[in-house]
Amino acid sequence: PYVWREGRSGLMGESPPTRGGAYHVVVFDYGVKRNILRLLADTGLKLTVVPAGTSAADALALRPDGIFLSNGPGDPAVCSPQIETIKALIGRVPIFGICLGIQLLAHALGGTTFKLKFGHRGINHPVRDEQTGKIEITSQNHGYAVEESSLPRELVVTHRSLYDGTVEGFAHREIPLFAVQFHPEAAPGPHDSWHLFDRFIDLIAEGRPLPGLARARTA
Questions:
Q1: Nearest-5° angle of CA 116, CA 122, CA 124?
Q2: Rounded CA gap, 111 and 153, in Å?
Q3: For position 207, what pLDDT does the model report?
Q4: How far is CA 209 from CA 16, 91, 125, 137, in A?
Q5: Distances (CA, A) of 72 to 29, 65, 103
Q6: CB-based contact 157:148 (threshold 8 Å)
Q7: Cβ-count burial of 187 within 10 angstroms (0-12 exposed, 13-18 middle, 19+ buried)?
Q8: How many angstroms separate the first and last alpha carbons of the chain?
Q9: pLDDT score of 9
Q10: What is the C-alpha to C-alpha distance for residues 156 and 218, in angstroms, rounded to an integer?
Q11: Sheet holding 2-4, edge to edge
């Protein structure tokens, strides 16, 4: 485990933000990108990065206000220890996942994933935010996707690919957690999806599901 403090603001010579300064987030490192850490730090969050094999008990012993599940390679279905850890964390603290993080979270919540025929690769993938109708240009690099029909009714699809209709994000109706398949930190839009890091702050601050999910249509 290590503490991460560097944000983009420091690299650019700007004053660091303080919005999330009261909150401590434990980041599970499945292959985390540094710019994800920078953007989380830019919100003012205090970050402790832990190895992929860290147990739920050890993560909770760090007294986090939130949990972040990072990107990473491979087939999520074979990551049984990580899935069991996430199961033990759900409902304990707010959770945000990206890429492999959404896939592991889907399995932990009772869903499944499947291998895409060609995979999603590139920096020009249009994704629709189902809550706002806004289209965001996203960066993607994954070979597996969440099987929408497998998701429990408590989950709402929040983002969808406009290329093939696959799930690009979901959130829970009753528990403070959400996740996306694409990479908001990769800046293809260039900043279309950076608001998701602020959404994580809101989730931690409010300690309840994202607004409007109770009325949203079922996944």
A1: 110
A2: 11
A3: 86
A4: 28, 11, 27, 25
A5: 8, 23, 10
A6: yes
A7: middle
A8: 36
A9: 66
A10: 6
A11: 2-4, 46-51, 24-29, 66-69, 95-98, 177-180, 167-172, 155-161, 113-129, 135-146
As given in the structure block, the two tokens for residue 92 are 């304990």
- Contact in structure between 147 and 165 (CB atoms under 8 Å): no
Q: Which residues are catalytic?
A: 99, 183, 185
Q: Is the peptide bond between 211 and the residue preceding it cis, with omega within 30 degrees of 0?
A: no
Residue ranges of the chain with pLDDT lower than 70?
9-21, 212-219
For residues 180 and 159, what is the distance between their CA atoms, to the nearest angstrom?
A: 7
The confidence score (pLDDT) of residue 217 equals 47
Pairwise CA distance, residues 66 & 26, whole Å: 7
Q: How many C-alpha atoms does 131 have within 13 Å on its Cβ side?
A: 16
Place of tokens 């929408």: 148
The helices-and-strands tally (H runs, E runs) of the chain is 6, 10
